[in-house]
Structure formats: structure tokens, C-alpha cells
Amino acid sequence: MPGPVQNNGLSAAASALQMLERKQQVLANNLANASTRGFKAETTFARMMGNQLAKADTAVDLTPGTLTETHNTLDLALEGDGFFVVDTPAGERFVRNGNFRLDANRRLTDDQGNPVLGENGAITLPPGTVEVDATGLITVDGKPQQRLRIERVAPGTDLEHEGGTRFIPDASRQVIPPAERTVKQGFLEESNVNPMSAMTEMLSVLHRYGAAQQTLSTIDAVRGIAVTDLAKPV
Amino acid sequence: MDPALRAAATGMMAQQTRTEVIAHNLANVNTPGFKRSRAHFEDLLYQTVQGQQVLGENDTQITPAIQVGRGTRLAGVQRLHEQGPIEETGRNLDVAIEGEGFFQIQLPSGETAYTRDGSLQISDQGVLVTSAGYALQPPIRIPDDASEFTVSATGVVSVRRGNDIQPTEIGRIELARFANPSGLLSLGQNLLAPTAASGQPVVGFPNDSGMGRLQQKSLEGSNVEIVQEMVEMIAAMRAYEINSKAIKTADEMSQIANNIAR
């Protein structure tokens, strides 16, 4: 039976390989979403566990993306932190992609048809000129309708990606007071993926992967020697 | 297959689509009233990978699960309705809209379609039609003895009849506006149709709230800007390239993994 040190070395190298594979998967997903509006990159960081096992954790990087002007009335972007809230069959979700539209019942929805929520629930708009001010108050032909619900999670809390540029909020969610918001009408937020840093990170992952493989092979070779040579009769 | 390989492949496909949209924009750089489009994408579903279980001397620790995304896909192609440049043509029957409205025209099927292309003609029946031959709605009939066709900023169409000194008003152009013009469906031939996403048309006279005023003897040019499209194209190409590098890296990592066991 191999000793504890050898065992630890092997599993540490193996878990480093696994951790780097996960990192590469996360980076590939970030790069694939370099032009996905409202997308937030995932950052990975390695942690050493008690027994020297490396573990990749992910967190959503909430750095804002660039805002691009689209001149579409129902395109909304948020400057600063916070999320729009949409009502999906699976529950309320956060989105930064404010590419909204009206459905057949004149309800404001996201690009997949989920209602966007205001302070009093789903938002139905009468025909007319839609204006949205910085606090998220929607007016049609100057008549106030609803104010959008814009929420954030407590600093340091992690959000979960759901796909479709939606995020699953946790219990720490809270409404952002109107005075602290900046909603921009006619703008959309681009992906916050920085291809340059993702590329650099990917190369470093590749090199470390090679090194971890070398380590693993070396430990294996040492173990091989231990098993074959030490067992030989002198 | 390696999830990284797959995610990167979806990224390459996305950039391919983005380039197709850019090529279409560039092909329409001289189409009157054309509005450029942008492809937009959404991330695919995420897989939650369970954390490792670590057995310590005194306790067992389970590390939190991590999320691995599966790449991207096309969510839609969005038209950008910025005003195109108003170009003076000097032609009497050219009418440009400065603002948000659309001309309403009747298709042979009886349905109404919408366009920003105001290069009008007079049909053999004497009504105002678009260059494709579809009648403006509501129809405006030009009398046989008419001369000096004028369109005012508010859409009033007048002509001088026979030897009259004063012009006669023969109709008024109405425009339609949409809550979300980017949701309109392209029918080709510079025509657009309403959808659930665009909302129903709001009809009104030119120069009324946000409808846009008319300018005769002018056409709205395409809002495609070559330099902007070039920049987009370079960005798409670089993103394509970087996703191909992600594929290469994932492949090299698989090779390394294969070398573990000799």
C-alpha cells in the first residue's frame, strides 16, 4: 500500500489537472460569449483544500460592460450595479440585458417573452411614446405608468448563471432605491468579457496543465521504482 | 467531447453569423431607408458540477459546486433604427422622413406593410406608389391635369391643377410608428411587417409627437456606416480567431492528458 505522502502527491497533481480543465471550460464559455449582450464573465480561482487538493471556484464578474446606443425605445441599460427583474416559469430572475419588447398583450417582456417586473408586477403599456427616466419610471405620452423593479444582491454574494443571460438571485436581494439608479433608454450593455485577459489566462492554464501532467508522471515513475526496484531481492 | 471544445465551437458559429449580418449591412450601404442590423447572442444553459468531497482527519468537507457554461447561441438579429442621413435628390417625388415614422403601403394581399423608403412613383392608375409599385395608404390620387407636386413637412400633398394659380390639396400622407421598431419583420424589398415584438402601429400625421416630419426632394440614405461595420467585422474576426485558439488549447490539453499514461 502506498504511503500517505505519495498518495497526496498523486491526488494533488490529479486534482490540479481537473481544476485546470474546469478553468479552461469556463474560459472557453466566456470567450464564446464575448459578444453576448448583458453577459457577465465568470472568474475562476483555485483554492487549496486541507489535503493540498486544488479546487476551482467560480464567481460572476459583475464589472459593467460598455453601453452601446441603439436608439430603440425599449432597449434599456443600467449604469452601475443592479439588475432588471423578469418573471420566468422557474421564478424571478435577474437580467442585465435590457433588450425588451412588447408582446401581443402590450406587456413589457425580455427577448424570450418573460414579463419584466415593475413595482406592481408585470408592466402593460398603452399605445404612445414610451419614455423611461433614470430611476426606471416608465411614462407613455407623459403619463406615468410603473417604475421598474431594479435590484441588487449584497456585496460579496455570488450569483448563479442560468443561461439566456439570466441570473438566479439569492436571498440577499434588495431593491435599489430610485435615487441610486441610472437607467439609460436606447442603450444596451455589451458583454464584459475581456478577450485579451481571457487569452492570456488560457495560455497560462495550458502551461500549468503541462506542468501538472509532468508532476503526475514523475510521481508515478518514482512509485514505479519503489514498487519494482525495492521489491527486488538484493 | 470536451465541454471547452464545444463551447468554443458555439463561439465560432456565433461570430460567423455576426459576420453574415455585417455582410448584409455592407451590401445595403446604398439602399434608401435601409436600417442596419446586429446579431445578438445569449449564453447557453449552465451545468453545475458538484464539488469534490475532501476527507480530512477529523471532518469531511464538501466544496461548493461550480458552474460550467456551454457556450453561446444566436438570440436574434436586431435592427437599429437610428436616423439615416437625409440626402437631397432634387426629385419631386422623393420624400424622406426625419423622425420615427414609417410610410404605410398596401401589399397585393391587402395587408399593410411599412417602409422608410420614400422614392415614390405615380402608377398608371395615377396613385402614389413605392418604387416596387405598392400603393401608399391612405391612397393619394394625382389628377391628370396636375403639375408642381409638393409635399409639406406635415404631409399635405398639393398640386397645381390646369391653369390654377393656387395649389389644390389632394391628400395627406399618414405615417405609422411602433413602440419597438426593431421587432418589425423584414419582408425584403425595403418592406417591414408588424409582429408581436414590434407592437401594433400607431397612425398619425407627420410632425405630430415623434412621428417625424417629411422632407420633399430628399431620400433617407442607409444608416450603415462603412467604418463602423469594418470595426465590427474586425472585432468578429478576432473573436472568431480567439475561439479557435480556445479549441486549439483544449485540444493540446487533451494531448497532454493522453501522455499521462505511458
Termini separation of chain A: 21 Å
Overall geometric form of chain A:
elongated
Shape by Cα distribution of chain B: elongated
Element-by-element helix/strand order of chain A = HEEEEEEEEEEEEEEEEEEEEH
Biggest sheet details of chain A = 6 strands, antiparallel
Helix-strand makeup class of chain B = alpha+beta
- Beta-strand percentage range of chain A: 25-35%
DSSP E strands of chain A, number: 20
Helix content of chain A: 25-40%
Given as residue ranges, the uncertain stretches of chain A (5+ residues, pLDDT < 50) are: 1-6
Given the structure, what is the number of helices of chain A? 2
Please report the total strand number of chain B as a whole number: 22
Describe this entry's structure for a reader.
The complex is a heterodimer of chains A (234) and B (262). Chain A is of the alpha+beta class. Helix content of chain A is 28%, strand content 31%. Chain A is built from two helices and 20 strands. Chain A has helices spanning 4-32, 195-231, and strands at 42-48, 54-60, 67-69, 75-78, 83-88, 91-95, 98-99, 101-102, 108-109, 117-118, 121-122, 130-132, 137-140, 143-147, 150-152, 160-163, 166-168, 174-175, 183-185, 187-189. In chain A, a hairpin with a 2-residue loop joins β5 and β6 (91-95). In chain A, α1 (4-32) runs antiparallel to α2 (195-231). The longest helix of chain A has 37 residues, at 195-231. Chain A is elongated and about 95 Å long. Chain B is α+β, with helices and mostly antiparallel strands. In chain B, the strands form nine sheets. In chain B, strands 9, 10, 13, 17 and 20 form a five-stranded antiparallel beta sheet that branches. In chain B, strands 14-15-16 form a three-stranded antiparallel beta sheet, with no helix packed on it. In chain B, a hairpin with a 6-residue loop joins β15 and β16 (168-172). Chain B is elongated and about 105 Å long. At the A-B interface, α1, β1, β2, β8 and β16 of A face α1, β1, β5, β6 and α2 of B.
